[in-house]
Design brief:
Blueprint lengths: L9 E6 L7 H8 L5 E4 L8 E5 L2 E5 L12 E4 L4 E2 L1 H13 L9 E4 L3 E2 L2 H10 L13 H9 L6 H5 L1 H17 L6 H7 L1 H7 L3 E2 L1 H7 L5 E4 L32 E7 L3 E2 L11 H8 L18 E2 L4 H11 L3 E5 L9 E2 L2 E6 L2 E3 L6 H6 L1 E4 L3 E2 L16 H14 L3 E5 L7 E2 L3 H6 L3
Helix pairs in contact: 3-4
The site of guanosine-5'-diphosphate has 23 residues, from α1 and β3.
Protein backbone atom coordinates (compact mmCIF):
# COMPACT_ATOMS: atom_id res chain seq x y z
CA UNK A 1 0.00 0.00 0.00
CA UNK A 2 2.61 2.61 -1.00
CA UNK A 3 0.73 5.93 -0.87
CA UNK A 4 1.40 8.71 -3.31
CA UNK A 5 0.99 11.59 -0.92
CA UNK A 6 3.34 12.35 1.93
CA UNK A 7 1.08 11.16 4.70
CA UNK A 8 1.82 7.87 6.36
CA UNK A 9 -1.19 5.98 7.73
CA UNK A 10 0.46 2.76 8.81
CA UNK A 11 3.98 2.43 10.16
CA UNK A 12 5.70 -0.86 10.82
CA UNK A 13 8.40 -0.71 13.50
CA UNK A 14 10.86 -3.54 13.04
CA UNK A 15 14.17 -4.54 14.58
CA UNK A 16 17.04 -4.51 12.12
CA UNK A 17 19.63 -6.44 14.12
CA UNK A 18 19.53 -9.01 16.90
CA UNK A 19 16.76 -7.50 19.01
CA UNK A 20 16.71 -5.20 22.04
CA UNK A 21 16.99 -2.15 19.81
CA UNK A 22 14.51 -0.09 21.82
CA UNK A 23 11.51 -0.73 19.56
CA UNK A 24 9.13 -0.48 22.53
CA UNK A 25 9.83 3.18 23.20
CA UNK A 26 9.45 4.05 19.50
CA UNK A 27 6.12 2.23 19.39
CA UNK A 28 5.07 4.08 22.54
CA UNK A 29 5.97 7.36 20.82
CA UNK A 30 4.30 6.58 17.49
CA UNK A 31 1.10 5.38 19.15
CA UNK A 32 0.68 8.79 20.79
CA UNK A 33 -1.12 9.64 17.58
CA UNK A 34 -2.43 6.27 16.41
CA UNK A 35 -5.65 4.29 16.75
CA UNK A 36 -4.35 0.74 16.82
CA UNK A 37 -1.13 -1.02 17.76
CA UNK A 38 -0.67 -4.56 16.43
CA UNK A 39 1.85 -7.16 17.56
CA UNK A 40 2.33 -9.37 14.52
CA UNK A 41 4.64 -12.22 15.62
CA UNK A 42 6.54 -13.77 18.53
CA UNK A 43 5.28 -14.36 22.03
CA UNK A 44 6.24 -13.69 25.63
CA UNK A 45 9.92 -14.04 24.66
CA UNK A 46 9.73 -10.38 23.64
CA UNK A 47 10.54 -7.86 26.34
CA UNK A 48 10.01 -4.26 25.32
CA UNK A 49 11.27 -1.91 28.00
CA UNK A 50 9.48 1.39 28.31
CA UNK A 51 9.64 4.12 30.87
CA UNK A 52 6.72 5.92 32.48
CA UNK A 53 6.73 8.43 35.31
CA UNK A 54 7.11 5.56 37.82
CA UNK A 55 10.13 4.10 36.03
CA UNK A 56 10.75 1.00 33.98
CA UNK A 57 7.83 -1.07 32.66
CA UNK A 58 8.22 -4.06 30.35
CA UNK A 59 5.65 -5.32 27.84
CA UNK A 60 5.83 -8.97 26.76
CA UNK A 61 2.44 -9.98 25.38
CA UNK A 62 0.78 -6.60 25.65
CA UNK A 63 1.64 -4.39 22.66
CA UNK A 64 3.51 -1.24 23.75
CA UNK A 65 0.53 0.90 22.67
CA UNK A 66 -1.06 -0.18 25.98
CA UNK A 67 0.83 2.73 27.55
CA UNK A 68 -1.55 5.12 25.72
CA UNK A 69 -5.17 4.60 26.84
CA UNK A 70 -6.77 5.73 23.55
CA UNK A 71 -5.00 3.04 21.53
CA UNK A 72 -6.54 -0.34 20.75
CA UNK A 73 -3.93 -3.09 21.13
CA UNK A 74 -4.21 -6.23 19.11
CA UNK A 75 -2.23 -9.43 19.64
CA UNK A 76 -2.70 -10.86 16.18
CA UNK A 77 -2.74 -14.28 14.55
CA UNK A 78 0.86 -15.41 14.26
CA UNK A 79 1.61 -14.49 17.88
CA UNK A 80 1.88 -17.09 20.62
CA UNK A 81 0.00 -16.72 23.86
CA UNK A 82 1.03 -17.97 27.29
CA UNK A 83 -2.25 -17.69 29.24
CA UNK A 84 -0.73 -17.59 32.72
CA UNK A 85 1.98 -15.12 31.79
CA UNK A 86 -0.38 -12.76 29.99
CA UNK A 87 -2.66 -12.71 33.04
CA UNK A 88 0.34 -11.84 35.23
CA UNK A 89 1.22 -9.03 32.83
CA UNK A 90 -2.34 -7.69 32.69
CA UNK A 91 -2.48 -7.63 36.49
CA UNK A 92 0.88 -5.90 36.74
CA UNK A 93 -0.20 -3.17 34.33
CA UNK A 94 -3.53 -2.72 36.13
CA UNK A 95 -1.71 -2.39 39.46
CA UNK A 96 0.45 0.28 37.89
CA UNK A 97 -2.69 2.22 36.96
CA UNK A 98 -3.11 1.22 33.30
CA UNK A 99 -6.42 0.18 31.84
CA UNK A 100 -6.32 -3.28 30.27
CA UNK A 101 -9.83 -4.25 29.20
CA UNK A 102 -11.60 -5.44 26.04
CA UNK A 103 -11.87 -1.74 25.19
CA UNK A 104 -8.12 -1.48 24.58
CA UNK A 105 -6.81 -5.05 24.25
CA UNK A 106 -7.79 -7.98 22.07
CA UNK A 107 -6.19 -11.37 21.49
CA UNK A 108 -6.66 -13.17 18.18
CA UNK A 109 -8.70 -16.35 18.43
CA UNK A 110 -6.02 -17.82 16.13
CA UNK A 111 -3.05 -17.21 18.46
CA UNK A 112 -1.52 -20.55 19.45
CA UNK A 113 -1.32 -21.16 23.18
CA UNK A 114 1.78 -22.15 25.11
CA UNK A 115 0.92 -24.72 27.76
CA UNK A 116 2.85 -26.26 30.61
CA UNK A 117 4.06 -29.23 28.55
CA UNK A 118 5.75 -26.88 26.06
CA UNK A 119 7.78 -25.40 28.89
CA UNK A 120 8.80 -28.85 30.14
CA UNK A 121 9.75 -29.87 26.61
CA UNK A 122 11.88 -26.76 26.16
CA UNK A 123 13.83 -27.44 29.35
CA UNK A 124 14.75 -30.86 27.92
CA UNK A 125 15.67 -29.37 24.51
CA UNK A 126 17.85 -26.69 26.08
CA UNK A 127 19.98 -29.33 27.76
CA UNK A 128 20.73 -31.00 24.41
CA UNK A 129 23.17 -30.47 21.51
CA UNK A 130 20.87 -28.04 19.69
CA UNK A 131 20.40 -25.64 22.60
CA UNK A 132 20.39 -21.98 21.57
CA UNK A 133 20.03 -20.26 24.96
CA UNK A 134 16.36 -19.45 24.59
CA UNK A 135 14.32 -17.39 27.05
CA UNK A 136 12.65 -20.68 28.23
CA UNK A 137 9.17 -19.35 27.35
CA UNK A 138 8.15 -22.43 25.33
CA UNK A 139 8.26 -20.47 22.07
CA UNK A 140 10.10 -23.05 19.91
CA UNK A 141 7.94 -25.87 21.25
CA UNK A 142 4.66 -24.01 20.69
CA UNK A 143 5.78 -23.20 17.14
CA UNK A 144 6.87 -26.80 16.50
CA UNK A 145 3.51 -28.07 17.76
CA UNK A 146 1.75 -25.57 15.48
CA UNK A 147 3.74 -26.71 12.43
CA UNK A 148 3.21 -30.37 13.39
CA UNK A 149 -0.56 -29.73 13.50
CA UNK A 150 -0.54 -30.45 17.24
CA UNK A 151 -1.17 -26.92 18.43
CA UNK A 152 -4.16 -25.48 20.27
CA UNK A 153 -5.47 -22.06 19.32
CA UNK A 154 -6.90 -19.48 21.69
CA UNK A 155 -10.51 -20.09 20.54
CA UNK A 156 -10.14 -23.83 21.28
CA UNK A 157 -8.37 -23.21 24.56
CA UNK A 158 -11.21 -21.00 25.79
CA UNK A 159 -13.92 -23.56 25.10
CA UNK A 160 -13.86 -26.26 27.80
CA UNK A 161 -15.48 -28.85 25.52
CA UNK A 162 -13.08 -28.23 22.66
CA UNK A 163 -10.08 -28.18 25.00
CA UNK A 164 -11.21 -31.49 26.52
CA UNK A 165 -11.73 -33.01 23.07
CA UNK A 166 -8.31 -31.97 21.68
CA UNK A 167 -6.07 -32.80 24.66
CA UNK A 168 -6.16 -36.65 24.70
CA UNK A 169 -4.21 -37.08 21.43
CA UNK A 170 -1.66 -34.55 22.62
CA UNK A 171 -1.35 -36.38 25.94
CA UNK A 172 -0.62 -39.58 24.03
CA UNK A 173 1.99 -37.87 21.87
CA UNK A 174 3.78 -36.30 24.83
CA UNK A 175 3.77 -39.59 26.80
CA UNK A 176 5.99 -40.93 23.98
CA UNK A 177 8.41 -38.10 24.71
CA UNK A 178 8.43 -38.94 28.43
CA UNK A 179 6.26 -35.96 29.44
CA UNK A 180 3.21 -37.03 31.41
CA UNK A 181 0.09 -34.92 31.38
CA UNK A 182 -3.08 -35.59 33.35
CA UNK A 183 -6.23 -34.53 31.53
CA UNK A 184 -8.15 -33.69 34.70
CA UNK A 185 -5.24 -31.74 36.16
CA UNK A 186 -4.90 -29.71 32.96
CA UNK A 187 -8.60 -28.94 32.76
CA UNK A 188 -8.51 -27.73 36.35
CA UNK A 189 -5.19 -25.87 36.08
CA UNK A 190 -6.29 -23.68 33.16
CA UNK A 191 -9.82 -22.87 34.34
CA UNK A 192 -8.90 -19.52 35.96
CA UNK A 193 -7.03 -18.37 32.83
CA UNK A 194 -9.90 -19.47 30.58
CA UNK A 195 -12.40 -17.55 32.67
CA UNK A 196 -10.33 -14.39 32.94
CA UNK A 197 -9.10 -14.24 29.37
CA UNK A 198 -12.40 -15.05 27.62
CA UNK A 199 -13.37 -11.38 27.37
CA UNK A 200 -10.28 -10.56 25.28
CA UNK A 201 -10.89 -12.93 22.36
CA UNK A 202 -11.40 -11.22 18.98
CA UNK A 203 -11.46 -12.12 15.32
CA UNK A 204 -8.71 -10.82 13.03
CA UNK A 205 -11.20 -10.08 10.28
CA UNK A 206 -13.30 -7.92 12.65
CA UNK A 207 -10.26 -5.88 13.67
CA UNK A 208 -9.23 -5.34 10.04
CA UNK A 209 -12.73 -4.08 9.16
CA UNK A 210 -13.10 -1.94 12.27
CA UNK A 211 -9.77 -0.13 11.81
CA UNK A 212 -9.75 -0.01 8.02
CA UNK A 213 -9.20 3.73 7.64
CA UNK A 214 -7.49 4.33 10.96
CA UNK A 215 -3.90 4.99 11.91
CA UNK A 216 -1.88 1.85 12.61
CA UNK A 217 1.43 1.03 14.24
CA UNK A 218 2.69 -2.50 13.67
CA UNK A 219 5.00 -3.58 16.46
CA UNK A 220 7.70 -6.09 15.65
CA UNK A 221 9.32 -8.21 18.33
CA UNK A 222 12.82 -9.71 18.11
CA UNK A 223 14.51 -8.60 14.87
CA UNK A 224 15.53 -9.30 11.30
CA UNK A 225 18.81 -11.09 12.00
CA UNK A 226 16.86 -13.47 14.24
CA UNK A 227 14.30 -14.19 11.53
CA UNK A 228 13.63 -17.87 10.97
CA UNK A 229 14.22 -17.54 7.21
CA UNK A 230 16.46 -14.50 6.80
CA UNK A 231 18.44 -14.50 10.05
CA UNK A 232 21.58 -16.16 11.40
CA UNK A 233 20.18 -19.68 11.13
CA UNK A 234 20.19 -21.72 13.38
CA UNK A 235 20.70 -18.99 16.01
CA UNK A 236 17.25 -17.63 15.34
CA UNK A 237 13.88 -17.13 16.90
CA UNK A 238 11.10 -19.34 15.59
CA UNK A 239 9.04 -16.67 13.84
CA UNK A 240 9.41 -14.06 11.11
CA UNK A 241 10.16 -10.67 12.69
CA UNK A 242 11.04 -9.43 9.18
CA UNK A 243 8.64 -8.02 6.61
CA UNK A 244 7.72 -11.62 5.77
CA UNK A 245 5.90 -11.92 9.10
CA UNK A 246 3.53 -9.00 8.49
CA UNK A 247 0.21 -9.91 6.93
CA UNK A 248 -1.25 -6.42 7.31
CA UNK A 249 -0.98 -3.51 4.93
CA UNK A 250 1.43 -0.71 5.83
CA UNK A 251 2.98 2.20 3.98
CA UNK A 252 6.19 2.89 5.89
CA UNK A 253 8.70 0.45 7.30
CA UNK A 254 10.89 1.97 10.00
CA UNK A 255 13.86 -0.28 10.59
CA UNK A 256 15.34 0.13 14.05
CA UNK A 257 19.07 -0.31 14.51
CA UNK A 258 20.81 0.18 17.81
CA UNK A 259 24.06 2.04 17.16
CA UNK A 260 25.96 -0.33 19.43
CA UNK A 261 24.15 -3.54 18.52
CA UNK A 262 23.96 -6.40 20.98
CA UNK A 263 23.66 -10.13 20.73
CA UNK A 264 23.49 -13.12 23.08
CA UNK A 265 24.23 -16.85 23.08
CA UNK A 266 26.41 -18.75 20.61
CA UNK A 267 25.57 -16.62 17.58
CA UNK A 268 28.67 -15.41 15.64
CA UNK A 269 29.60 -11.91 16.80
CA UNK A 270 31.85 -10.59 14.07
CA UNK A 271 32.35 -7.05 15.36
CA UNK A 272 32.51 -7.79 19.06
CA UNK A 273 33.92 -4.89 21.11
CA UNK A 274 36.77 -5.54 23.57
CA UNK A 275 35.57 -6.64 27.00
CA UNK A 276 36.69 -3.52 28.91
CA UNK A 277 34.83 -1.15 26.58
CA UNK A 278 31.78 -3.43 26.63
CA UNK A 279 31.69 -3.29 30.39
CA UNK A 280 31.71 0.49 30.28
CA UNK A 281 28.97 0.61 27.65
CA UNK A 282 26.77 -2.09 29.20
CA UNK A 283 25.82 0.05 32.17
CA UNK A 284 24.72 -0.93 35.64
CA UNK A 285 22.37 -3.93 35.86
CA UNK A 286 18.98 -2.61 36.92
CA UNK A 287 19.25 0.69 35.03
CA UNK A 288 16.47 1.06 32.44
CA UNK A 289 18.86 1.10 29.51
CA UNK A 290 21.53 -1.32 30.80
CA UNK A 291 22.48 -4.06 28.34
CA UNK A 292 20.99 -7.05 30.14
CA UNK A 293 18.11 -9.08 28.63
CA UNK A 294 14.65 -7.65 29.54
CA UNK A 295 13.23 -11.21 29.74
CA UNK A 296 16.29 -13.29 30.68
CA UNK A 297 18.48 -10.84 32.63
CA UNK A 298 21.56 -12.14 30.75
CA UNK A 299 24.41 -9.70 29.92
CA UNK A 300 24.41 -8.85 26.21
CA UNK A 301 27.55 -8.89 24.06
CA UNK A 302 28.09 -5.51 22.41
CA UNK A 303 29.23 -4.98 18.84
CA UNK A 304 30.64 -2.21 16.65
CA UNK A 305 28.25 -0.94 13.96
CA UNK A 306 28.22 -3.40 11.09
CA UNK A 307 27.13 -2.15 7.67
CA UNK A 308 27.25 -5.63 6.13
CA UNK A 309 24.24 -7.07 7.94
CA UNK A 310 22.61 -3.63 8.25
CA UNK A 311 22.59 -3.26 4.45
CA UNK A 312 21.22 -6.79 4.12
CA UNK A 313 18.42 -6.09 6.65
CA UNK A 314 17.48 -2.83 4.90
CA UNK A 315 17.38 -4.59 1.55
CA UNK A 316 15.38 -7.70 2.39
CA UNK A 317 12.84 -5.65 4.35
CA UNK A 318 12.69 -2.92 1.71
CA UNK A 319 12.92 -0.46 4.60
CA UNK A 320 11.75 3.13 4.05
CA UNK A 321 13.69 4.77 6.86
CA UNK A 322 16.12 4.03 9.63
CA UNK A 323 15.70 4.67 13.34
CA UNK A 324 19.06 4.81 15.10
CA UNK A 325 18.62 4.08 18.79
CA UNK A 326 20.87 4.66 21.78
CA UNK A 327 22.66 7.29 19.72
CA UNK A 328 23.50 9.06 23.01
CA UNK A 329 25.70 6.08 23.96
CA UNK A 330 28.25 7.10 21.33
CA UNK A 331 29.17 9.98 23.64
CA UNK A 332 30.85 7.43 25.95
CA UNK A 333 33.46 6.63 23.29
CA UNK A 334 36.31 8.78 21.94
CA UNK A 335 35.96 7.31 18.45
CA UNK A 336 33.71 4.90 16.60
CA UNK A 337 34.62 2.01 14.33
CA UNK A 338 32.36 1.00 11.44
CA UNK A 339 32.60 -2.40 9.84
CA UNK A 340 32.18 -1.96 6.09
CA UNK A 341 33.17 -5.42 4.79
CA UNK A 342 34.17 -8.86 6.00
CA UNK A 343 37.23 -10.95 5.35
CA UNK A 344 36.52 -14.60 4.71
CA UNK A 345 39.59 -16.84 4.47
CA UNK A 346 41.73 -13.83 3.63
CA UNK A 347 39.40 -12.52 0.89
CA UNK A 348 37.44 -9.27 1.30
CA UNK A 349 33.69 -9.72 0.79
CA UNK A 350 30.82 -7.22 1.05
CA UNK A 351 27.91 -9.60 1.49
CA UNK A 352 26.60 -11.67 4.38
CA UNK A 353 27.50 -15.36 4.05
CA UNK A 354 24.56 -17.53 5.12
CA UNK A 355 26.54 -20.74 5.52
CA UNK A 356 26.87 -20.87 9.33
CA UNK A 357 30.37 -22.36 9.18
CA UNK A 358 31.64 -19.66 6.82
CA UNK A 359 29.89 -16.90 8.78
CA UNK A 360 31.72 -18.01 11.93
CA UNK A 361 35.04 -17.61 10.05
CA UNK A 362 34.34 -14.00 8.97
CA UNK A 363 36.52 -11.24 10.33
CA UNK A 364 35.54 -7.56 10.34
CA UNK A 365 37.08 -5.00 7.98
CA UNK A 366 36.72 -1.53 9.48
CA UNK A 367 36.54 1.67 7.46
CA UNK A 368 37.92 4.97 8.69
CA UNK A 369 37.04 5.58 12.36
CA UNK A 370 35.01 8.67 13.17
CA UNK A 371 35.69 10.94 16.09
CA UNK A 372 32.79 10.91 18.53
CA UNK A 373 31.10 13.78 20.36
CA UNK A 374 31.98 13.50 24.01
CA UNK A 375 28.95 15.48 25.11
CA UNK A 376 25.50 14.75 26.55
CA UNK A 377 22.96 14.98 23.72
CA UNK A 378 19.96 13.51 25.56
CA UNK A 379 18.21 16.89 25.81
CA UNK A 380 18.65 17.82 22.15
CA UNK A 381 15.45 17.63 20.06
CA UNK A 382 16.50 19.26 16.77
CA UNK A 383 18.93 17.81 14.27
CA UNK A 384 20.59 21.17 13.67
CA UNK A 385 21.43 21.45 17.40
CA UNK A 386 23.51 18.25 17.37
CA UNK A 387 27.30 18.55 17.67
CA UNK A 388 29.15 18.56 14.33
CA UNK A 389 30.60 15.08 14.89
CA UNK A 390 27.17 13.61 15.64
CA UNK A 391 25.87 14.95 12.32
CA UNK A 392 28.91 13.41 10.57
CA UNK A 393 28.10 10.03 12.10
CA UNK A 394 24.49 10.20 10.88
CA UNK A 395 25.84 11.11 7.42
CA UNK A 396 28.14 8.08 7.56
CA UNK A 397 25.11 5.78 8.10
CA UNK A 398 23.18 7.45 5.28
CA UNK A 399 26.11 7.34 2.84
CA UNK A 400 27.00 3.73 3.50
CA UNK A 401 23.49 2.35 3.77
CA UNK A 402 21.77 4.57 1.17
CA UNK A 403 18.77 5.19 3.37
CA UNK A 404 17.39 8.19 5.23
CA UNK A 405 17.84 8.34 9.01
CA UNK A 406 14.23 9.13 9.92
CA UNK A 407 14.52 9.05 13.70
CA UNK A 408 17.35 9.36 16.20
CA UNK A 409 16.79 8.16 19.72
CA UNK A 410 18.88 9.96 22.33
CA UNK A 411 17.60 8.53 25.62
CA UNK A 412 15.31 5.86 27.11
CA UNK A 413 12.18 8.05 27.37
CA UNK A 414 9.73 8.19 24.45
CA UNK A 415 10.20 11.94 24.06
CA UNK A 416 14.00 11.72 23.81
CA UNK A 417 14.05 11.72 20.03
CA UNK A 418 15.12 13.78 17.07
CA UNK A 419 13.02 13.26 13.95
CA UNK A 420 14.82 14.58 10.87
CA UNK A 421 12.37 13.09 8.38
CA UNK A 422 9.25 15.14 7.62
CA UNK A 423 7.03 12.16 6.79
CA UNK A 424 7.86 10.44 10.06
CA UNK A 425 7.43 13.69 11.96
CA UNK A 426 4.01 14.25 10.43
CA UNK A 427 2.90 10.77 11.55
CA UNK A 428 3.16 12.13 15.07
CA UNK A 429 0.92 15.08 14.35
CA UNK A 430 -2.78 14.96 13.53
P1 LIG B 1 13.13 -3.63 22.53
O1 LIG B 1 12.86 -5.06 22.88
O2 LIG B 1 13.57 -3.46 21.11
O3 LIG B 1 12.00 -2.71 22.91
O4 LIG B 1 14.38 -3.19 23.40
P2 LIG B 1 14.68 -3.50 24.95
O5 LIG B 1 13.54 -3.16 25.77
O6 LIG B 1 15.24 -4.86 25.12
O7 LIG B 1 15.93 -2.56 25.18
C1 LIG B 1 15.92 -1.24 24.93
C2 LIG B 1 16.41 -0.51 26.17
O8 LIG B 1 17.07 0.63 25.77
C3 LIG B 1 15.27 -0.07 27.03
O9 LIG B 1 15.68 -0.14 28.37
C4 LIG B 1 15.04 1.36 26.62
O10 LIG B 1 14.51 2.16 27.66
C5 LIG B 1 16.44 1.80 26.29
N1 LIG B 1 16.51 2.77 25.21
C6 LIG B 1 15.77 2.83 24.08
N2 LIG B 1 16.20 3.85 23.30
C7 LIG B 1 17.23 4.41 23.95
C8 LIG B 1 18.13 5.49 23.64
O11 LIG B 1 18.05 6.12 22.60
N3 LIG B 1 19.09 5.78 24.56
C9 LIG B 1 19.24 5.10 25.72
N4 LIG B 1 20.21 5.44 26.54
N5 LIG B 1 18.43 4.06 26.04
C10 LIG B 1 17.44 3.73 25.17
Amino acid sequence: MKMNNNKIKRTAVMGGGFGDEGKGKIVDLLTKNADICVRYQGGGNAGHTNEDEKGKIVTHQLPSGILNPWVYNFYAAGCLLDPDKVLEEINEFRKRGYEVSPKNYGISELAHVTLDYHLKEEKIAESGAFKVDTTLRGITQTTSAKVNRQGIRFCEFLDQDSFRAILPKIIEEYANKGINISLDEYLEMYKPAQEQLAEFVVKDEDIIKRFKDKKWVLEGAQATMLDMDFGYYPFITTSNPSRKGISFDFDYLLLVIKVIPSSVGDRPKITQIDEKTQELLRGKKGNTDAEYGATSGRPRQLLWPDFVWADYAITINEADGLALTKFDKFSMLPEIKFCTDYKLDGKKINYLPHDRIKLARCKPVYGESLESFEQDISDIRKFEDLPKNAKKIVQCYEDNLKIKVALLSVGPRYDQVIIPEKKMYSFLNK
